[in-house]
Amino acid sequence: MPPVKPMLAKPVARIPPGMQYEAKWDGFRAIVFRDGPEVELGSRTGKPLTRYFPELVAALRERVPERCVLDGEIVIAREGRLDFDALTERIHPADSRVRTLARRTPASFVAFDLLALDDASLLDVVLEDRRALLVRALQGVTAPVHVAPATRDVEVAGRWFEEYEGAGLDGVIAKPPGLPYRQDERAMFKIKHERTADVVVAGYRLHKSGPVVGSLLLGLYDDGGRLQHVGVSAAFAMKRRAELIEELAPLRMDDAAGHPWAAWSDEAAHTSARLPGAPSRWSGKKDLSWVPLRPERVAEVAYDHMENGARFRHTARFRRWRPDRAPHSCTYAQLEEPVRYDLAEILGRPPGDADVTAT
């Protein structure tokens, strides 16, 4: 019975040997519960996702065993790659909007673990046996439900790590084959891409604890010479947060007049430019105000990948200041573009393919 807390992964720098390997899907982690006509989708935090994906509920009711619990990822594909922005739009309070988006941007479910089948809980069953049961239980399943490809071959996993990014995937997950399912524990390993970029630091938000830096606001110049907000860097020790206030004080502006992001509080301005403080149902009543800085300081940050080529998908990690770089040289052109890879090539592979489930 829900809730079930999903097993988690901790980051490592390299793909470890002797594991079961899967792609790291960039979507919403979800636990699927089916008991006859009842289908529930639970999020990673335990909150229900069921009402937001009616098309998936119907598909799961038709395609998965009558009584089962599945662990997997809800994703949306557009033009052969994952689209996380389209996925976030699906979380909407209006039922009419939910139904419209279900038709316009239908979601898929990628199953990668089986936690219960009929009357049997499989939480204490080791991964390699759960995997065999999963493949058997979903044999012949059709879209929009899929079984995640998996392999025991570390060289295949290495190819996936390089190739699958072009389809919008996030890296590789390595799972110990003899591991029971451990709820809410970081018992698996995730290997993600890391690149660096030089960005303009054009503002900051204060930390919730007081007058120290909470996050740096980062920008890149587009082809038209406009500074676009591309993300934040926020992981600093408290001492460093206080130091940053002093370091950035000479660049602080009294207000946003004359700043490239001066129109940030105008909702209409967000339709034609990337600005901080974009209205979002995720932010709720969160204070989105920020302190503008003259866009004269350049920092090197590490990131994993870009969302739709426009912004950092996750929080960037501050590496160092770059006093040798001119702000206007910080453009999108410096970013590495992954080679395109059709998502259908991944989801279209049968789980029994020797190249995929090789042991």
Automatic annotation (TrEMBL):
Signal peptide: none annotated. It holds the Pfam family DNA_ligase_A_M. Residues 6-192 form the ATP-dependent DNA ligase family profile domain. Its EC number is 6.5.1.1. The lineage of its organism: Bacteria, Bacillati, Actinomycetota, Actinomycetes, Kitasatosporales. Coiled coil: none annotated. It comes from the Bacteria. Keywords: Ligase. PROSITE patterns: DNA_LIGASE_A1 (PS00697). It catalyses: ATP + (deoxyribonucleotide)n-3'-hydroxyl + 5'-phospho-(deoxyribonucleotide)m = (deoxyribonucleotide)n+m + AMP + diphosphate. InterPro entries: Adenylation_LigC-like, ATP-dep_DNA_ligase, DNA_ligase_ATP-dep_C, DNA_ligase_ATP-dep_cent, DNA_ligase_ATP-dep_CS, NA-bd_OB-fold, OBF_LigC-like. Residues 211-325 form the DNA ligase ATP-dependent C-terminal domain. This is DNA ligase (ATP). Belongs to the ATP-dependent DNA ligase family. The keyword Ligase applies. One of its GO terms (molecular function) is ligase activity.
